[in-house]
Amino acid sequence: MFDRRLLTHIDSPLLLLLLVTAALGILNLYSSTSNWNLAGTAVYIRQAYWLGLGFGLALLVSLVDYRHLYHAAPFAYLAVVGLLAFVLLFGKTSMGATRWIDLGPFHLQPSEIMKPVMVMMLARYFSRQENPFGHSLRDLLLPGALLALPLLLIMKQPDLGTALLLLFIGSTMILFAGVRRATLAGLAGLAVAAAGGGWFLLHDYQKQRILTFLNPDRDPLGAGYHIIQSKIAVGSGGFWGKGFMQGTQSQLSFLPERHTDFAFSVFAEEWGLIGCLVLLGLYLLIVVRGILIARKAGSPFGMYLAIGITAMLFWHISVNLAMVIGLLPVVGVPLPLFSYGGTCMVTTMIGVGLLNNVAMRRFMF
Amino acid sequence: MPLNAPAPDDACRKRRFELLLFAAALLFVLLALRLWYLQIISGDRYDLLARKNRTRSIPIAAPRGTLYDRNGAILVDSRPAFNVSVLRQEVEDLDALLTSLAQRLDLPVEQLQQTWQSRRFYPRYRPIPLAEDIDRTLVEELAENALQLPGLIIEVQPTREYPHGELAAQLFGHIGAISEKELRTLTDQGYRGGDQIGKSGLERHLEAYLRGQEGERLIEVDVQGRELRQRTQRPAQPGNQVILTLDLNLQRRAEQAFGDQAGAAVALDVRTGEILAMVSRPAYDPALFARGIGQKAWQQLLDDPDHPLQNRAISGQYPPGSTFKIVTALAALHEGVTRPDELIQCDGRLRIGERDFRCWKRTGHGPTNLMKALRESCDVWFYDISLRLGIDRIAKMARHLGLDQSYGLPLDNERSGLIPDRDWKRGRFGSSWYPGETAIAGIGQGYVLATPLQLAVMTATVANGGTFYQPQLLRQVRDHQGRILLQEQPRVRHQVRFTGQHLQAVRQALAAVVGDPRGTGKACRLPGIAVAGKTGTAQVVRLKDDLPGHKKLADDEIAYRLRDHALFVAYAPAEDAEIAVAVIVEHGQHGSSAAAPIAREILAEYFGIADPQPDSTAGQEE
């Protein structure tokens, strides 16, 4: 089952980019949590543990031929949809949302697992239904339904950020698979209508967030506080930044959630535009690498899988960055490799493992 | 096959990959442009916002300016005080903190709660002082237990020091924490909640001189407002040094001379109008206010029937009694209604209209000239003279000598007294003037009112030959580096053109009041210095004479509050005057026995006569 030659095909540029970015992320966490006096292991050390664990998982995921996932996808899909339903019924409620399943030492967040599973499911579907002329509306009914079911369950939790990401990932895959022009126009119209109608389905706090996003000064100490402080942090970084551990917004705690969703703001404050461009470059290279892996994939399923995983990474990165620099409402999407959190790190690394998996097996038909 | 065939790599797919790459790159470029906008285009604005986020300006209170007497002795000083304050954002359990603090400070917890409530409007990062100027041992004790009392801090703040206690308390005035009402009008002058401000007297009126300029400490705070480090510091500029005209020794001796008696005294330099002493008794301890006076103690001061907060020397309006005869006598000579040698018969009473006007001496003074009339304070002589003068001419002379006006001193509630005339009565009562009222006004009773300061000015003006100087309290104001900001010069308000003989005649009579064995002011005699003066008695209850059986009552038995006020005005040396004094002892009965000895003490101090032997044979009058 395991072929030694596979090791020579490990995608080292991808893993190198990944390690460099993750190292920057840990450095950044060291700075942003340096004034915390918490008992136990420091946050950045814990993040390093998660990175190590994630890296191990990525290698483990690389070992098993991704093609097995083709067969496992429907079962995994059903299982996670079941978990999502379970969460709604018995999940752990925190801060008004029910997202977690309490597993003793762990909290399991099925919506996070749904992302790679959705990627597998759609990859399976589109690799079977190749259509050189583009998919028609009828072709898209099944993948649409496959996407809509967990989406609705997640929105019900409610977890707008994850639902949005899932929608972006799914749409990216559908668009990449090809859609007929007329169908595309129809879907675009439908999306606009849904956006309008969706407003009325949103929870109050979600509407609040969107209104505050449009005008943060509406509530500078409440809902607008995060985004105002984040923009101050980023903007005051200037070109060269304030220097490592010198960011006043972060070191003096003006910036909330600076170790999780707003980790990039800390980085931007301390390293300035120059640092931000470097980091953006690193992320872009990871994304480009993902797309190249898809291009060279050994099978249609592998290609769609790689596209989906890359889309997942890409949308996490762009939505988080857009959020902390005030281009999108604050929806609670972490920045892969930068935000502290085991779930995010593990999901990211499993995704990277899958990409590597596809890359390693590009010559095996 | 989805799994085992390579993906077809046609043109269409190639285009999709290119599109994908392009879209990803485009979005990242968009993000980069946004970062450019935030960090470069708006960088300065956000930098400013970040600075504002983390820096706070903490004012450093400036020590108030020191008050000095004319010889450079410190009257009111500033010193550092330790305050127990609470930093709101650090408090974990307010109730527990206040309770614990109340116990340690030995204060009722309600008082601390009240203080807390009344100071909640202070800026958020500014600590709220709960107890001011606490003991040094208590400071140490609290500092040791600081960990159990989160939020508690000890602040050092300059406070007022009163090395002479109650001395001239109403004159100096007191300071206190700025009130919400004051703050509303003074915010644009840089005042803030928690500032100390002059509340009365010189402290209030010289606020601009004394206040100083507060310094500033720029500190860096975290989101909770906790101080992390200090950026810069601009030291406070102490308030200006104010040199008063007062003479500390004279002031102290004068206050001591009053003992427990209520009253007021003013001593003036007749050559300049400078106020050498200004006494108002009883007084209060201004340190109470510097420490933050409690509601109860404040109410007690307000309700005190002896009005310790009032500066009687300028706010107390008293009938001047016989001291006013100086005015009437001068007016008579000036207007030519009598000559110094004219004799008027005193039979102990004078009938005016339907009523008998009595002289204080029932048996009468017999034939009386101006000298005798002043020396022995004959009322009948003055009734007669006043009728000849008419009220308007008396009033005119009174105003020339400084009565019936306020001088605009930097003090609270300076009153202008009252000199009645025909116009005044018509305006006030709508009725015409009666001759009897003229006779009563001529001996300083009836409507006539004057403050002790006015009587001192009147006396000084007579003593120096007719120059009515503006009374002054300030000599000089210097900043803390010694630069002179204000230098007062004597200012003449009015020059009375007396004929030399007239003035001489009155002055000789006033010298005889003290110097002559028959004079009423013998109690003010000093060895080696000729003193001139005039006694007076101000009736408190005019109907007293009509009370049945009153004459059988001994002085002591007349209820204290019904007793007459005793007055004495004096200047010395009689021939070449330097100092003029006016003394009033409330309910002191007789100017000769109660007020003259106090004037004597003041003069003795001024002339450096160590232990004057009081003349026990005080003259009787009225």
UniProtKB/TrEMBL annotation, chain A:
InterPro entries membership: FtsW/RodA, RodA/MrdB
User: What topology does the record note for this protein and the membrane?
Assistant: Multi-pass membrane protein
Which GO BP terms apply? cell division; cell wall organization; peptidoglycan biosynthetic process; regulation of cell shape
Q: Pathway it acts in?
A: Cell wall biogenesis; peptidoglycan biosynthesis
Ranges annotated as spanning the membrane: 12-31, 43-63, 69-90, 160-177, 184-202, 271-292, 304-331, 337-359
Where in or outside the cell it occurs: the entry states: Cell membrane; Membrane
User: Could you tell me the EC number(s) of this protein?
Assistant: 2.4.99.28
MF (Gene Ontology): lipid-linked peptidoglycan transporter activity; peptidoglycan glycosyltransferase activity
* Catalytic reaction equation(s): [GlcNAc-(1->4)-Mur2Ac(oyl-L-Ala-gamma-D-Glu-L-Lys-D-Ala-D-Ala)](n)-di-trans,octa-cis-undecaprenyl diphosphate + beta-D-GlcNAc-(1->4)-Mur2Ac(oyl-L-Ala-gamma-D-Glu-L-Lys-D-Ala-D-Ala)-di-trans,octa-cis-undecaprenyl diphosphate = [GlcNAc-(1->4)-Mur2Ac(oyl-L-Ala-gamma-D-Glu-L-Lys-D-Ala-D-Ala)](n+1)-di-trans,octa-cis-undecaprenyl diphosphate + di-trans,octa-cis-undecaprenyl diphosphate + H(+)
This protein's superkingdom?
Answer: Bacteria
Q: Name one GO cellular component term.
A: plasma membrane
Q: What's the main place this protein lives?
A: membrane
Q: Which UniProt keywords apply?
A: Cell membrane, Cell shape, Cell wall biogenesis/degradation, Glycosyltransferase, Membrane, Peptidoglycan synthesis, Transferase, Transmembrane, Transmembrane helix
Q: What does this protein do?
A: Peptidoglycan polymerase that is essential for cell wall elongation.
Tell me which PANTHER family the record gives.
Answer: CELL CYCLE PROTEIN (PTHR30474), PEPTIDOGLYCAN GLYCOSYLTRANSFERASE MRDB (PTHR30474:SF1)
Its family remark reads: Belongs to the SEDS family. MrdB/RodA subfamily.
The protein's name: Peptidoglycan glycosyltransferase RodA
Originating species: Desulfuromonas thiophila
Give the taxonomic lineage as stored in the record.
Bacteria, Pseudomonadati, Thermodesulfobacteriota, Desulfuromonadia, Desulfuromonadales
Q: What is the primary gene name for this protein?
A: rodA
